Amino acid sequence: MQHCENYDKPVQFFYNYSGKYITDDWSTRDYVVLGVGLTVCVIVILSNILVITAIIINRNFHFPIYYLLGNMAAADLFAGVSYVNLLFHTGPYTIGLSKHQWFVRGALVDMSLMASVANLLAVAVERHQTIFTMQLHSNMSNRRVGLLILGIWAVAVFMGLVPFMGWDCICDLDACSITAPLYKRSFLAFWAMLNLIMFSIMVAMYARIFVYVHRRCRSRPALDVDQLNYETVVNLMKTVAIVLGAFVICWTPGLVILLLDGLNCKVCQVLKYEKYCLALAECNSLVNPIIYSYRDEDMRKTFKQILCFLCRTEGDQQGELSPVEFKKKDGSKRSSLRLPLFSASSTG
């Protein structure tokens, strides 16, 4: 960060200067926001751990598209953790933050958004490739998928740290934004436009895919030996499209607010809608596991098996022998029982 006469000023100074006033008094509204927010974050974290676990243990999901969806769940999990951090460093808590802590707080949220957007773009490209060749899964190797996922997180970390590396308004108070008083308005405008453009690209790609699928459905014969595989490809594509749609719906209002703030709109009352938009964005990390459960029978069955296994394990710890592993009565070598491999019907 730059050094200037404002460098040693506390975070509250920048909030007061921009007009986003904070106090050290806790209101009933603050307690409600904290309580509801923490509850949602806990559900987000647990549900996305469930998705990641299902993808790891079910061999039906060991394909590039599911690895990317698993990485999407990891981004949602990271979002849940970043929102927990935000809740404990917002409102009256903000007064006690150092500038470094404030930038870390913002960077975590920015990283989770960037990871999700970049991951959705990778999924869109993967689906575009497979649909037009009518393949169920991409031919990418596990190594290439792993490198792609590492690249997604590298981009997310870099973009999250950009304000910390100098794109701030500490030495240029007149350029400070209102919603994020230590960020320059130009950064908010850039950030919002970048994400909105990526949204538009992904929506255009899926629109092209749907047009292609619609034309193919009209031209293909009524009976086809590959009918089941074709329907599976289309259903998986629809599931991914719903995930993208939910993401766009949840994040677009917040990005529009940031864009209006970045463009220095004086009559837009961005602070009035800021918290509602942030709450809507947080809900996006919660809806993806619901979408997977509703759209994918294989995923739903795997969820049930994981939860049933956890319930049985809890019962074993209360005095019953574990069905997974036990010792022989004579105390000799331990024997073990393998859990059945998770398997279910094709993706629906």
UniProtKB/TrEMBL annotation:
<feature type="domain" description="G-protein coupled receptors family 1 profile">
    <location>
        <begin position="47"/>
        <end position="292"/>
    </location>
</feature>
<dbReference type="GO" id="GO:0005768">
    <property type="term" value="C:endosome"/>
</dbReference>
<feature type="transmembrane region" description="Helical">
    <location>
        <begin position="31"/>
        <end position="57"/>
    </location>
</feature>
<dbReference type="InterPro" id="IPR017452">
    <property type="entry name" value="GPCR_Rhodpsn_7TM"/>
</dbReference>
<dbReference type="GO" id="GO:0070915">
    <property type="term" value="F:lysophosphatidic acid receptor activity"/>
</dbReference>
<dbReference type="GO" id="GO:0005886">
    <property type="term" value="C:plasma membrane"/>
</dbReference>
<keyword id="KW-0807">Transducer</keyword>
<comment type="similarity">
    <text>Belongs to the G-protein coupled receptor 1 family.</text>
</comment>
<feature type="transmembrane region" description="Helical">
    <location>
        <begin position="187"/>
        <end position="211"/>
    </location>
</feature>
<dbReference type="InterPro" id="IPR000276">
    <property type="entry name" value="GPCR_Rhodpsn"/>
</dbReference>
<dbReference type="InterPro" id="IPR002277">
    <property type="entry name" value="LPA_rcpt_EDG2"/>
</dbReference>
<keyword id="KW-1003">Cell membrane</keyword>
<keyword id="KW-0472">Membrane</keyword>
<dbReference type="Pfam" id="PF00001">
    <property type="entry name" value="7tm_1"/>
</dbReference>
<feature type="region of interest" description="Disordered">
    <location>
        <begin position="326"/>
        <end position="348"/>
    </location>
</feature>
<keyword id="KW-0325">Glycoprotein</keyword>
<keyword id="KW-0675">Receptor</keyword>
<keyword id="KW-0967">Endosome</keyword>
<keyword id="KW-0297">G-protein coupled receptor</keyword>
<feature type="transmembrane region" description="Helical">
    <location>
        <begin position="103"/>
        <end position="125"/>
    </location>
</feature>
<feature type="transmembrane region" description="Helical">
    <location>
        <begin position="64"/>
        <end position="83"/>
    </location>
</feature>
<feature type="transmembrane region" description="Helical">
    <location>
        <begin position="145"/>
        <end position="167"/>
    </location>
</feature>
<keyword id="KW-1133">Transmembrane helix</keyword>
<protein>
    <recommendedName>
        <fullName>G-protein coupled receptors family 1 profile domain-containing protein</fullName>
    </recommendedName>
</protein>
<keyword id="KW-0812">Transmembrane</keyword>
<dbReference type="InterPro" id="IPR004065">
    <property type="entry name" value="LPA_rcpt"/>
</dbReference>
<dbReference type="GO" id="GO:0009986">
    <property type="term" value="C:cell surface"/>
</dbReference>
<keyword id="KW-1015">Disulfide bond</keyword>
<feature type="transmembrane region" description="Helical">
    <location>
        <begin position="240"/>
        <end position="260"/>
    </location>
</feature>
